[in-house]
């Protein structure tokens, strides 16, 4: 009888230990420290210079570098970061569902978006601009009248040109900016418009180096922020602290130079946290 009592007690202890181990073995997508877990981060997969999945499966770009630095400050090593493709139309839903902990994906801070998510940053001030061939004489928005302009279907950049800047521009709308850049290279269009950071990323690709230039027109202000789930102010505060450190230790400027430098991108100074330029 005594042997059975000891065996039963040992079994109970073993079961309790196994239960505790099982409870602690899951991935941590919302921890401030890695603890052996992972963090899921939303980025773009198709924007050279910002967020691009390379043929070997790795990721490159300014947003990727910012996200990696921020995750590091939250306690995660690069091999503990799982990048998740978050397309523009699904960014708010991805945060609300908890698919990702934060998003760094050319995510402009707007009042409409702030009603659905919280933002850290901004970490980059971009502007709507034009990309043209290196020998182009297009120097201001009005020069687009009568010219062939390319942008993606339904973009606010195209609408801005049509409605206020050059209503007589011949707008060609396609599904991706890659198509626009190819058209600029072939001469089927005279200019491409979107955020200057996006344009610089494309122009910096090896196959396009030296062929294009940014017009530098600053047609709008785009304050890129890092999105977090609505109400998650603790994470937003930690990210803000990380962004401030990234600027102060020089890592921010190194990331700008590495990803945009080949296109002669004249970036704005690092924005101050919480300061939105209208």
From TrEMBL:
<keyword id="KW-0732">Signal</keyword>
<comment type="similarity">
    <text>Belongs to the bacterial solute-binding protein 3 family.</text>
</comment>
<feature type="signal peptide">
    <location>
        <begin position="1"/>
        <end position="22"/>
    </location>
</feature>
<dbReference type="InterPro" id="IPR051455">
    <property type="entry name" value="Bact_solute-bind_prot3"/>
</dbReference>
<feature type="domain" description="Solute-binding protein family 3/N-terminal">
    <location>
        <begin position="38"/>
        <end position="263"/>
    </location>
</feature>
<dbReference type="InterPro" id="IPR001638">
    <property type="entry name" value="Solute-binding_3/MltF_N"/>
</dbReference>
<keyword id="KW-0813">Transport</keyword>
<dbReference type="Pfam" id="PF00497">
    <property type="entry name" value="SBP_bac_3"/>
</dbReference>
<protein>
    <submittedName>
        <fullName>Glutamate ABC transporter substrate-binding protein</fullName>
    </submittedName>
</protein>
